[in-house]
Model the fold of this input.
Amino acid sequence: MKQVLQLRMSQHLALTPQLQQSIRLLQLSTLELNQEIEQLLADNPLLERADSPFDQSLRLAGDGSVQSAGDNSFDGTEENRGPEESGAPEASGEVREESPSDLGQDMLMGEPRTRGALDDDSEPQQLATITVTLRDHLLTQLSVTKASRRDRALVSVLIDAIDEDGYLRSPLEEIAEFLPEELAVGVDELNAALSLLQSFDPPGVGARSASECLCLQLRDAGIQDLSDTHTCQAAYTLAAKHLDLLAARDFSKLKRALKTDDAGLRAAHALLLRCDPYPGRRFGHHASNFIVADVIVKKRKGVWHATLNPEVMPQLRINRVYAQILREHRGNEQVASLSSRLQEARWLIKNVQQRFETILRVAEAIVERQRNFFTHGEVAMRPLVLREIADTLGLHESTISRVTTQKYMLTPLGTFELKYFFGSHVATEAGGAASSTAIRALIKQLIGAEDLKKPLSDSKIAAMLGEQGIVVARRTIAKYREALRIPPVSLRKAL
Done:
């Protein structure tokens, strides 16, 4: 076979670095975007934040001295005023910074926040609250007991083995094996130490099961001192032996086992509901996860509008000092590397701005199509797919998917992910379609209004929706009910 050389011309698509960065920024959440920007700020000296708490940066004066940049606003308004208007004499020999038009006004994202010292109207700083953990709470009680030193040491070992719910999950035999053999600690000693621990506050701490936890709390409450002794004994027996029947809602067997009627079982159950199955959770500090919305929806003059949340928009700009050095020494090889950094900074500012513009466009399109949802709630949600928004905005479905993932919208009804407004549809008898979100809301309403003595089955719910013109199969009702974390009919039955 003869080898030959051929010259061919072809066209192919290539993702430029700027486009790759734009796609990556678009799919990032607000938290991930801030982390990405902080990393780029650390790597690129020509990029800076206008909303940084250290925005009172230093700039060089013409005489070589250092002067605060906080004296002049970056929008050039202070520079355009004379000494009489600015309230400060103009420094002689100072190198005048160029206006934003010289640096490229499109290099600025967002508006600056008010600078200067905190005034009297500023919010006071909040001090960190000191929380007491369950372990500290138990050790404090142990320190004031009159137990022997050995007993206190054994109780301390058990306290270290208690989990955050207040339960002792490890068997006493296993704990005894981990103790040094020369101490000769037996299970009987640990049982005695556990009894002392279970007398501490909160009631039920140190229990090894939910049944034991409830029984400890009933004993601590002094059920023998209550007026209805029969109800108290029934509650104690229910907690000690028949929690499985209570979970299965088998009320017939419960009444026979407790030798009581409906009223007695209801009273015993109410007594159990006063107990806390997780006594340790009231202690310690659990950090809350907060969602910062990217878009805010409000109603103005009877029309719903979507606006970007200014708190999540990073205010980026080109560092003027480095930009000025780059212009003045454009032919110098020592600053040649700054040219690529300047281009990267411009790309980032443009891509971040384009990211938020795309999010706003998609949010406005969603609000336009889901107006009834914001007015009437979930039952008014209309079917919506990604392709509909993509065709309206002239974007690709993958772009809409990136925009709606991990981006949140703050509405009068709550905070929702943008993907929440998209969903499948179910046909109606009239030939239309109903959103799956609206159907789930109807199921929730029907179950919320049901008679607890005769709860609605999935077949009955399907029939009731069919009367409203919504054709839904029983298995679809079961799927939606499970998605709403609603138990089946057998577990929703009450006395």
Observations:
- The first strand starts at residue 47 and ends at 49.
- Residues 53-128 have pLDDT under 50 and may be disordered.
- DSSP finds 22 helices and ten strands in the chain.
